[in-house]
What we know:
The chain is mainly beta. It has strands at 4-8, 13-18, 25-26, 31-37, 40-45, 50-55, 62-63, 68-73.
Amino acid sequence: MAMAEEVRAEMVANVWKVVASTGDAVAEGDTLVILESMKMEIPVLAESDGTVSQLAVNEGDVVQEGDLIAVIDG
């Protein structure tokens, strides 16, 4: 049985663009959201294949290190 994967922020950043949507099928390495920090764009990638079951951020949000960004069901 596959486990759900929680994708979390690795740094304090602004959510610049949300690429994936709830219900989307994603593959390992697909971009879920793009964060912006210190004028750099940082893609947040899926670490496994699956379906996006939850997106916890919206464009314009500020995330802290460790904040939940998305959940992917495998």
